[in-house]
Write a structure and sequence with these properties.
Two copies of one chain form a homodimer. By secondary structure, chain A is an alpha+beta fold. Chain A contains 16 helices and 18 strands.
Chain lengths: 463, 463
């Protein structure tokens, strides 16, 4: 009686030392930066060094019906890359080549494992730029940015990942390689599977290559503005007034009082007047100075105390306050970083809802917002110790408050997640937004790509 | 023995005078503006006046397994809306309301039947603008623009339909209504079905509503430039030099000698020097004048004879030459208007290929190009009489030449269709571009939405 070889045996035979079963590697693959870790111990981490390695891994996974979780740099905030017991963590981090940069066509062809920041440093030498700029850009991969449909600070003016990817090379669950999309600016041949893969969180296949749509570095000066307001509602109303004025800032970030206080404390700055909220804006391009002056007038009229500079270093120093939000939250405890988005005009109303949730659930929820596109990051801060498995559980009373906040965002015409994705943390609310019919249709579409359901099972759709 | 009522009987019982079986209506539904008409006589034209009418039509179609072809204004150029024998033409042209315009959120919610031009006239009153501008914008519907993933002249700077739609209301084959996408700038909840529906040519459902992403009308002047060159390769090389220079014109259109000659003849202008090709460009926004001056220098250095104006009326007069291309072609015979796209740097090489195809197939192929995004419209002109059914058939020798041209575009890294879609005219080349595996996967995805295959059968995927 012959025994079927196990997935691990087959992986080792095919991929040798690319198959990693060291306990520290397996444990690291259980978590991302969401604070959540999967239960159990992964089967192995496969460090793919080629597209062929990815295909071979998927063929073995299909033959043995073994789940596979694709992983880049592990910087996700929704648990989408967390790998659980018996699952293969397929790392594409080492596939980090830039295969082609075409300044004349404004495209680059890259492997998925390159860091967003490294790619942009390389593109800068050509006067080029890939616009998506998640706050994690120094540590997150382009493949991960695509898999989550990442956003960032500059999105309202320069677009999100969906606007900046022309084609994707995708390895299917059974190991076949598909080339989706095109190298041209326009192209409508068949269904737009490139867009379908963007933000699909590892459910449809393994992204092993991408053709990116580039921009030229914006010429001209950069002007930076900060404006402080007596309370967060006034700041949110002022940001909506900027949008309504027709001026398009490159960046418009909002920090509420709890966020501003925590960051000032971290950076050793003066304690802000209680309640003070702040907007930080940048304008760029040929009309940067005129736009900054116009924004100054709108913010001053809205009751703001405005500081404006056209010095790039001074501007970066002002923006550093916003960029210090994540480290500041870490000084307060464990943070569940949420990610709702609402229509821009609903931003003041959403801050009212956050204040209500704080009152009713007796919590402080420091919140920053990409105010230019209505995307808010409420931080639910709590004290928690990892359990014996290293898993940090979000306490039920925090989920109750988050549930209240999610439904408030949906009532205001908003969405559960603007840029982080659903992963494991938000799957139980997914059908609330999509409706049952669409939820089921989306599941069926995923099954066309992955009939056995071995790609990132339990993420996004499973409750 | 009771007989199952026919689809027509059920439609009449449910929808009364919205069911149109006049011979002239049925005949009109067989064709679009591609020059191709479907064989046979449609069962009926249903003029839906509400989303409920669309749902009822689809429920009856599903119950009776009757094919349905959704139709807007019938301005397609690939035969996608042509309705054949025994099929229902479901017209959403009368669903033309603008349900909501939100200047503060830069969104509009519209029904599918509104004409692109009518919508933009209405938005202009608010200082707003929906950027996709197909040449047909005065006569084509927003729903049709979405169904084909339309492009236009301004795409290189302002984007295509895919960049300008946030959400779609879709009636499925069985009559269920889904609300896809969101009202927010960012949103990554689940799979991006909105993008999947854009350009899906009626295969996935009936678009009954859309949430559009608007822009503000661009302030400042508009500068227009024309440059003539001794031959089309020089004009194509000059257009690539403009792209490579980093200046982003709003419009950059190229006309080859045969196109320019035909338009001059139509408009009663002087006969151009033989071989002369022309670029027409516009710049807009705060840096319009500086950009026009920079473009002038690039074009002059590339050997062009340049005319430049910052007068809007003069500029429109120059652009009118390009806009007269379609009527000029109609004076030459029946035209098969093709639609390949190549990476911008490959534009000169693609014009070399067109010249080769002209030589080898002994044809003249007047060609215009949206040179800013590498999208070419070669016009295969031929003499043809409609047959007894009113069907104009493209002769085999024209298809042979088109086949040669399509494969040349694919070899240059291009695509079969930049903005017109596959419809019936290009379905036999679809697998050449997608590959067999992706072709089959796309078919399976369509079947998830439409298990019986009653939505626009025979289009896109069928050979």
């Amino acid at each position: 009686m012959s025994e079927t070889p196990s997935a691990l045996t087959l992986l080792r035979a095919a991929l040798g030392d690319r198959v990693d079963t060291r306990p520290s590697s397996l444990n690291a693959a259980r978590a991302d930066k969401s604070g959540h870790a999967a239960a159990g111990t992964p089967l192995a981490v496969v460090h793919a060094r080629s597209v062929a390695d990815v295909q071979e891994t998927m063929r073995i996974a299909t033959a043995t019906a073994t789940p596979v979780v694709t992983r880049g740099a592990g910087t996700g905030l929704a648990g989408g890359a967390n790998t659980g017991g018996g699952e293969i963590a397929l790392s594409v981090r080492a596939l980090d080549a830039v295969l082609e940069v075409r300044p004349d066509d404004l495209i680059a062809v890259v492997e998925p494992g390159i860091l967003n920041g490294d790619l942009n440093a390389m593109l800068a030498e050509h006067g080029l730029w890939w616009a998506p700029d998640p706050a994690s850009r120094a540590i997150s991969t382009v493949g991960g940015n695509i898999a989550t449909g990442a956003g960032g600070l500059l999105c309202a003016k320069y677009g999100v990942v969906r606007d900046a990817v022309l084609g994707i090379d995708l390895v299917l669950a059974d190991g076949r390689l598909l080339s989706l999309g095109h190298r041209t600016v326009k192209g409508v041949t068949g269904l737009d599977l490139t867009s379908l893969v963007i933000g699909s969180e590892g459910l449809l296949g393994v992204i092993v290559g991408a053709t990116l749509k580039l921009r030229r570095v914006v010429p001209g000066e950069v002007c930076t503005i900060t404006a402080t307001f007596s309370d967060v509602r006034a700041a949110a109303t002022a940001s909506a007034a900027v949008t309504a004025s027709g001026v398009q800032p490159a960046i418009m970030e909002l920090m509420d009082a709890a966020s501003l206080t925590a960051v000032h404390s971290l950076l050793g700055l003066a304690v802000p007047v209680p309640g003070t909220a702040q907007l930080t804006l940048q304008t760029d391009g040929p009309a940067a100075a005129a736009e900054a002056a116009a924004i100054d007038r709108v913010l001053t009229a809205a009751g703001g105390t405005v500081i404006r500079t056209d010095d790039r270093d001074e501007g970066e120093a002002l923006l550093a306050i916003r960029r210090s939000m994540h480290p500041a939250m870490e000084t307060l405890g464990t943070a569940l970083i949420e990610d709702v988005a609402v229509p821009r005009s609903a931003l003041p109303a959403m801050f009212d809802e956050i204040a209500r949730v704080e009152r009713e659930h007796e919590l402080v929820i420091p919140t920053v917002a990409h105010a230019g596109d209505g995307n808010l990051h409420p931080n639910f801060v709590f004290d928690a110790e990892p359990d014996a498995d290293g898993v940090v559980e979000v306490p039920p009373h925090i989920w109750d408050a988050a549930d209240d906040l999610f439904h408030a965002a949906l009532r205001l015409g908003g969405t559960l997640t603007g840029e982080h994705g659903v992963g494991v943390l938000k799957r139980r609310w997914l059908a609330d937004e999509l409706g049952d019919d669409q939820w089921e249709l989306q599941r069926q579409i995923a099954r066309v790509f992955d009939p056995q359901g071995i790609l990132n099972p339990g993420k996004v759709f499973s409750a």
